[in-house]
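Morning. Coffee machine broken again, so started the prediction first thing and wrote up yesterday's gels while waiting. Chain of 543 residues, entered below exactly as on the submission form.
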Amino acid sequence: MPQQQQQPQPTNAQVFLDGLKPAASSYTSRFSAFSQDNNNSSKTKDNTKPYDQQDTSSPSKTKLKTHIFPVTEAERTQVRATAVSHSNDYYNIVSRRYEFGWSQHFHWTPFAPGDSISHSLRNYVHRLAVVMGLKRGMRVLDVGCGIGAPAREVARLVGCEVVGVTINQWQVDRAIELTMLEGMGHLCTFIRGDFMRLDERFPGGWFDAVMGCEATCHAPSLEGVYGQVWHVLKEGGVFGFTEELMDDSSEGRWDETSERFRNLRNNLEVGGGMASLQPVSVARAALLKAGFTLELDEDYSKYFDCLSQPPKVVFAEDGLALGEIDVERNTQNLWEGKQVKSFSTVKLPTRDGNGWYYAPPPSSSYEQIRSSPKHPIPPTLRPWYYPIMGTKEAVQMGVTDEDRKRVSFMSHGSRRFYFTLVNILVWLGICSPGEAQLNKMMELYCDACVEAGKENIFAPCWMFVGRKDEGLGDATLLASQKLANGLAGAELQSGPLSARIDMATYAQLRRLSNFTEEENESRFGTPQTEVVDIFDGGVSTKP
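Came back before lunch.
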């Protein structure tokens, strides 16, 4: 009996080339319509010129080079109404490109010095697992799982079971294939589903934890998707995720009244296939409204921004009691009888425990360690968008040959070469015309990300960790939602919310779980006989 030959596994290049022959989808058709509208309206409307030709009054001196695609509020509303098909169409045509040109991880990441792109993407997921407190044996849901890289990474690191849900069938098929190749089928599984309808797929209180990596930005309503997550979580369960948001925190510059910023946001939405990019304050209020207690609230894309400052040289005197020394003023630090400078501000205790000191510098100077590099040394801080900057400097920021090759692939010169190649293939009938529009869409998104990052208005991986409090009754949940509504309404009318919520109000919100249902009713009123879903497709609360 002849032996059946085993078919070789497709390479990344083969997977990518298979994606060069998709039928023109409705998404590229919509993008083509945006492009045509831009070409027509630019003849009459000055605000549709390229940013570098506009006369703006922005305090930033950087000239934006991204082209505006005039997306009206009515069109954005229509996209939100068709968010499911919108996201499905988008990932039908970009998933192969994301995997081939970026990674199996479909998310951004900050970069620590010396870390490669692949290492940084894994660290991103590892940190999310750590701050969530995931443990072996937990049952975890990954909403918007893509092709399953974060789910497999978490399962491999922690040993928990992960169920991935995505709206796109090709992503499900690819995630299953990669999971089989990595031998992770005993811990990971993937299904097609809508995270706006989790209650139709899973019973309430089924999962110990829910995670997500920059996926819920495709939801038409953040309140809706957070409410669905609340429904499938057990009491005491944790929801850890990152969100792509417009940065209206105290460190961001997002301003809804700026037409220039709004147009840049629209470019991000169109190029990234997102239903609606919301400010950080809106996402925070939606999470509180869903009934979660915030445990972590930070801009992870700026996690290593402290590296943008030169190392702080400090002096300290050995043996002084804690709090007695002024670091800015003191110039004495005796270490083995010598006055030295310290490279770190981390305090070490003296042997008797009554004082503290700073550690001495290394035996060799920092400059000597960095002399004679084999490759160009990356700068101390590499922004999250450096791989798509498209410049020679960005290529030199790579720390491995693989990184430099990946960044070179996304350079402006490589883009021009690839665009020309695709246009020739379209002319020969090998590729569909939608491929040329897809090229424009991807370039639009990359350029918009770089400019929004430089303008400090876009936070691509804002990290939240929320917990579903144990014993949170329906009346208490309704009361917390009313308080969150009042907070969001009052704050948003007066201006952007601060980077951290008012602690007095937040403490009041956390104390709600200590009130009895009778106390909550006296404070907030008796719930109606039947309370409609607070979120679109979200949790239904009944008295």
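The chain has a mean pLDDT of 74. Going to sketch it on the whiteboard this afternoon.
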